[in-house]
Protein 1
Amino acid sequence: MLMLPRFGKVLYCNFVKQPTDPKSLGAWAIITGCTSGIGLEFATSLAEKGMNLVLVSRSKSKLETLAEHLQERFGVCCMSLAFDFLTCTPHEEEDFYSHVLPKALSSSPINGDVGLLVNNVGVGDEVPLMTDVVESLDVMSMIKVNCGATVNMSRALLPLFTHRKKGAVINVSSGSAQQPTPYLSVYSSTKAFIKHFSACCGQEYKDMGIEVMCIVPYYVSGTGMCPARPSINAPPASVVTKGALSSLGRHTVSHTNIAHALIDFGGRVMESPAVGWLVQPIARFYGLPWNLLQFMRWQHVKMKNRNPLLFEKHGRFKAVCMEWYGRSRL
């Protein structure tokens, strides 16, 4: 009986409730990390809907090319802001979030009419590695960009949304945030931070007319460990972005497509102790991974055999540590 209200809510949100139209929130949307992948598809989908765009990424030339292309194709207005979320100094961060960005959004032609923020920028090579093998620079990069940029961009836009009493934030997380993901410990943890941060902000600002949604896609073709050719379990980025926009106002966390929702459900079933005793012997018999740890180990070995030089590069930090520990025992 306790499940009936929850089931009814799921049916209502998926089949009855209409998604929020981003244009009803404001004439402009701002997208970070927008020159490739999911960010590029967000820019294209929103421009197709007639929204003007503020494009934020590190490459000024790519931003200008993208802005020109979207303006010619869809007749929208685009503004480019070049900013490197990774290499910026603390002073440059403070200046961008406190002065450059607010000044650009409050000036003509935007005049504060921004209704949507898409926090897409992120880093992570998604190579399946043991935690002690990940390079120190890679660790700091993932924390600074995946966590820091999401928080700081939200902090910069939320006062504007609060003042206007409407607005929405879409934070791009990952399916790896849905459960502990061995061999992607740092990357998946930063994505789990994004999901948790989204939930916290969503509750804080819900009564102010602001929607915060987090999307948790799994494999996307042409990114991470996936080949460029789309498949059922690795759809193109356009499927993810269109699914995200159709989920806005209906869900606080969205897989964006049925395939990824099924992957998430299957993963939870495989990890469940209640069915693990049955699934494990069957999977062993057919030589298949029976839980996420086994699957990631399989991915680790597969990629290591394919590109041993890559793993040799990532092993330098561990090698230095082991050398120091060896000397200390002398």
Protein 2
Amino acid sequence: MTATHKAAVRPRTARRVMLLAGTLASAGLFLGGCVTSQEYDGARDAANIMEARIAELTEERDSLSRALSDRNASDQALRDENSRLRQERAELSNDINALRERIASANDAIAKVGFSGLDPATDSDLRRLAARYDVMTYDPATGRISFASDLTFPSGSDTVRDGAKNTLNDLARILSTSDGGSYLIFIEGHTDSQRPSNPNTLRNHPTNRHLSAHRAIAVGNVLKGQGVSESRIFTGGWGASRPAVPNTATGNTPANRRVELYLVPDTRPTAAGGAPSAAPVQNTAAPAPASDAPMK
């Protein structure tokens, strides 16, 4: 028997007790004659106690009934929330599949794009810049500009070192010339396969992909700070998924810790005033990533 049923039965039992007590009292009056005042008062007090107990049991029954109703409503709310979460998960799964298809399509487009070289003036400027600074290398065959992360950032950080800022400032001046300003700038961050473990690193960069993306953004911010238009800069992070050299057993491979820049001709429609519009690039892709081309 449930608690609700028990609560419903108790008042009925109490009423029966009162009825029985009243019947016995009446019988006593008829059979035994008059009762004493003390006996009458005792019977009345007993009846009052029973009535109070009946009220308590009634309230208890009503409380249990409300609790059961609330629980049923809560169960229904949980079922509705579970159904909503299932629907949301299905929608997110569809979104992820669509993004994977877009990424695969973009990778196919990148693989088909050839590199015909930068314009002579920009190529010459980048060769001279790479010769001046150890932090940077330039590969004319692919147009890849690479910054060694160990020289560009403190370990586990996306704060650009002062020495690397000097190189990036000079690079920004090249990218702001009439020739260098005709390119879009794709910035890619890369790491080795060692997972972040320092609590200070994990607080801001919980995975290698986060760290690589944040470093690419930091390089882009330095260029923007030197006047390079934000509309020309595109950033992303590959983490450890595009190593330049095979990772060791420990994953500690300095050559894989790098930030790479690729210059792609800006073919966007020109807006009023001669400046390129912010419309997405049509049929334009960056050169193949470093894993598909030799390092300098």
